[in-house]
Amino acid sequence: MRIFVARIKTMNIPAIFDITNDAQFEAKALAVFRFQLEHNLIYQEFCSFLGKNATNVRRAIDIPFLPIEFFKSKVVITTKDQPQVVFSSSGTTGNTTSKHYLADTTIYEQSYLSCFKQFYGAIDDYCILALLPSYLERKGSSLIYMVDDLIKKSNHPDSGFYLNDTTSLKNKLVELAHSKQKVLLIGVAFALLDFVEKHSLHFPHLIVMETGGMKGRRKEIIREELHDALTRGFGVKKIHSEYGMTELLSQAYSKGNGIFKTPPWMRVLIRDTEDPFHIQDTGKTGGLNIIDLANIYSCSFIATQDLGKLHKNGSFEILGRFDHSDIRGCNLMIM
Question: Using one digit for the tens of pLDDT, what is the confidence trace for 227-241?
Answer without folding.
Answer: 999 999 999 999 999
